[in-house]
Amino acid sequence: MTSVSDQTLLRRKARASLSNASGRFEPERVAVDDGWVQEAPSDVIPTEIREEPARSIITYNRSPDLPFDRSINPYRGCEHGCIYCFARPSHAYLGLSPGLDFETRLIARPNAPDLLRQQLSAKRYRVAPIAIGTNTDPYQPCERDHEITRRCLEVLRDFGHPVAIVTKGAMVERDIDILAPMAHLGLVRVGISVTTLDPELSRRMEPRAPLPARRLAAMRRLTEAGIPVRIMTSPIVPGLTDHEVEALLAAGAEAGADAASWIMLRLPREVSALWQEWLAEHEPNRAPKVMARLRDMHGGRDYDPRWGHRMRGEGEYADVIARRFRAACKRLGLNEKSPSLRCDVFAVPPQPGDQLVLF
Question: What pTM does this model have?
């Protein structure tokens, strides 16, 4: 018997993961050659999208590391396939692999807008900004056909509800007609992640995300429409993209961003093994330096999940990156802290069947 993870160590076209090891909640996968396969498997792995109704759509968190306490994610898994994505381990809860499954076997939640409307209409609901795209990208390619993100934004617009969007997807431009009026009311901010300005490195690290120049173009279109945008230089990869910090911030400022943020590369659970496979394949000469710096910041471990530590690490190297980031932001006029989104515009719109209010 040959394990599936051994079979998939070959590079796959437009996929970042080199393996598809079993998730931690499923039995180990094995593949048995029964004699029927007569030719080599294709190196092109199609994307499968399954629709699955959600039971609830607003997820609450109490993390002191995050500036929001609630979020919605229209999709599970992400076709952008960023090899470093901290959300990969969440696919294990579905009985799927955080490796290739995460980028090829996706779940769309078509009833998300209806659930969102119901939850916002509840009498016990108390308004606070909702984040979209904190786990998987709301503007990954399947959004073009499913439009779940767009329909969720329509609900938030109708309720006058504040929202913060995080994405690498240039498709966010499509929704300027919704976002611009919301921005005029102080109800929306968009964060666009640009990890590197090197298109070749980007294509290898984040194979189905728009190229860096395309993301900056989207940033420019949004800001020209009056939508405030933050450039997110995340994650910063020690020994691989750390030399680009100032250039990334300058590119964001030139594209109209008015704020910036950064997070160091994080390798929770299965992400560490996937990342190190990728390094060995694509950056073998830099791999020792990258991993040594990460471990220096996490007490000798690949990752330290402690609150207040996991996002940026500790030590001299982490301090140098933080100082460089602050200095560049000050020079470029980028403020790390953005104005608060408004919550006083929120109101439940009339529902079908409601009694008319005459006085």
Answer: 0.86
